[in-house]
Amino acid sequence: MKEYDVIVVGAGNGGLVAAATTAKAGYKTLLLEKHNIPGGCATSFIRGRFEFEPSLHELCAEDVCDDLPSSKKILADLGVKVDLLHETTLYRTICKDPECSYDVVMHAGRENFLNDIEAAVPGSREGVANLFDLVDNISDAQLYMNTGKNGPKINPFVLMSKYGDFMRTASHSTEEVEKALGISEKARSIINTYWGYLGVPTDDLAALHFISLLVSYCVVKPTMPYHRSHEISLALAQAFEKLGGEMRYNSEVTRFLFDKKGKAIGVVANGEELYAKKIISNVIPNNVINRSEEKKLPTRFRKMANARKFGMSFVTVYLGLDRTKEELGIEDYSVFITRHRNARVQFDTRADCGYYVVNCLNVPLPDSTPKGTSTLFFTIPYIPGDFPENLTAREYKEFKNSVAEKYIKDYEETMGISIRPYIEEIAIASPVTFARYLSTPEGAIYGYASEGWDNIVGRIAMEKMEFNIPNLYFCGGHHTRGDGFPSGYITGDMTARQVLKDLEKEGK
Ligand SMILES: Cc1cc2nc3c(=O)[nH]c(=O)nc-3n(C[C@H](O)[C@H](O)[C@H](O)COP(=O)(O)OP(=O)(O)OC[C@H]3O[C@@H](n4cnc5c(N)ncnc54)[C@H](O)[C@@H]3O)c2cc1C
Predict the structure, then answer these.
(1) Which atom of ligand 1 is nearest to the CA of 477?
(2) Ligand 1 pocket member 444 (CB < 6 A)
(3) What does residue 94 show for φ and ψ, rounded to 5 degrees?
(4) Are 316 and 380 in contact (CB under 8 A)?
(5) Superfamily of domain 3-43+60-80+226-308+449-507
C-alpha cells in the first residue's frame, strides 16, 4: 500500500493544472490518466500528412481584470512556456435569414468591435458599449468574492451596495440584459454568435457568463498555440513531472474508495488500490458515482448530479485539403453560419445547418499544414437525444458521412467555393467518439448544461453545499465555471489551492 498526499484522476486541463499545483507546493502527487497521452479534449491527432486540432477554436488566455486568475498566469506560475498567437479577427458571421440577413466580420479589441457593430447596425454602438461596461462591476464583484472565500465572509449587503450591476444582472439571461440595454434584434444576433461556445442559446444563458466570455475575447484578444492544444497539455505534463509529480498513463480509475464514514481515501487503477489524503477528480461526478459504493456518497451529491442536464456535444468534421487556402478562396479563420437570426431557433434547427462554425487554421497559422495544403474543421452542435441509438457499425458510418456531406455542401453553397474535389483526408467525430475518448455520459464535452437554474452564478454560490464529500474535490469543464479551456485551468488552480489550504490546516 502506497500513500500519496494527493491523487488526481484524469489529465485533462483541470487535472493537469491541479496536479502540477499540488506538486509545486511539495505534496506527493500522483496523476492517473486512462489514455497514453495527457490533455483530454486538449490534444491533437494525425491523419496522413495533417496534424489536426480536435477541439480548440480560440483560447481566451487572459482575463479582463489583472487581479483575476487567467490561463496565462496559471501556466506561467507552473513554469509552462507556450507561444500563444493573438488573433486580430474574432469571427465572420453569416446569417441567411431572409428577414435579417448579414455577413459581418467582427474584430478583436473593444473599439474595433464597437465600430464593427455600429457599421453593421447603425445606432447600436451605445447599447453594446454599455454591455461591455457591465463587466467592470462584474469583475470587481468576482474579485471581492474570490478574496472573500479565502478571508472574510461574503456579505450580501456589500454585494448589494457596491456591486449593483453584478446583482442586477446575476439572475438574468443574456437576452434579457441586452434588451434592457436597448440593443436591437439584429445587433443581438451578431454579438450573440458565440453562444455555441457555451452550449446554451442566449435566452437561457446567464448574462454574467456570456458577457464575461464576450468581453474577454474582445478586450484581450483570443489566442491559439502554434502546435495545437496538445502542445499546452504536453508542457503541463512535463512541468508536473519536473515538479516531482508521478504520472501514470494507461491507468483508468475504476473505483473510488471511501472509509466507513464516507471520507474519500483512495482509488483503484489497473487493479491496484492507491491511497491518498486528498483526491481530486477531473472526472464528471456521474462517473464518480458509478465507480463508487453509492450508499457511501451523500444523498445531496447524488441528487445534484442526477438532476443536472448533460451539456452539448458535437459532430466535428476535419478535412485535410490538397490546396492552399488562397487556392480555395478561404479568407477567414472562424466562420459561423446560421439560418435564422434568433439563437433559440438556431439551436432548435441545429440538425439542419441552423448553426455551425468552420475554422481554417491556416489563416492564423499559415504553416500549420504542409506546403500546398490546408485544413478545415467543422463544428456542429448535438445534444443528448439528437444522435440515433442502436445503429449498426455500417449505419453509424453512413450517418456520420451523411452529416459531413450535408454540412460540406451547405458550406460550399454559402461561401461560393468548392472544397470536395480537394479532400485528401477526412475524419468525423461524433458524440460517440467523445463518449469513448473522454468517458463522458452522452459524449458531453461541456460537462453539464449551464442553463436555467443550473447556471454558473448558482453553481459558484452553492459549491460548498453540493460538493460535500470529505477529501474529494472536483475540477474541469463539468465544475462551477462551466466548460472551456480557461475554466478547466482556473478550476484546476482554485481546487488545488483549496486542497493545499486544507492539507496545511490538517497538518497543523
Ligand atoms: C470539439 C470541441 C471544441 C471545443 N472548443 C473549445 C474552444 O474553442 N475554446 C475553449 O475554451 N474550449 C473548447 N472546448 C471545450 C474544452 O475543450 C473543454 O471544456 C475542456 O478541455 C475540458 O477540460 P477538463 O479539465 O474538463 O478535462 P477533459 O478534457 O474532459 O479531460 C478529462 C480527462 O480525464 C480522463 N479520464 C476520464 N475518465 C477517467 C478515469 N476513470 N480514469 C482516468 N482518467 C480518466 C480522460 O481521458 C481525459 O484525459 C471544445 C471541446 C471540444 C470537444
Answers:
(1) 26
(2) no
(3) -115, 120
(4) yes
(5) FAD/NAD(P)-binding domain (3.50.50.60)
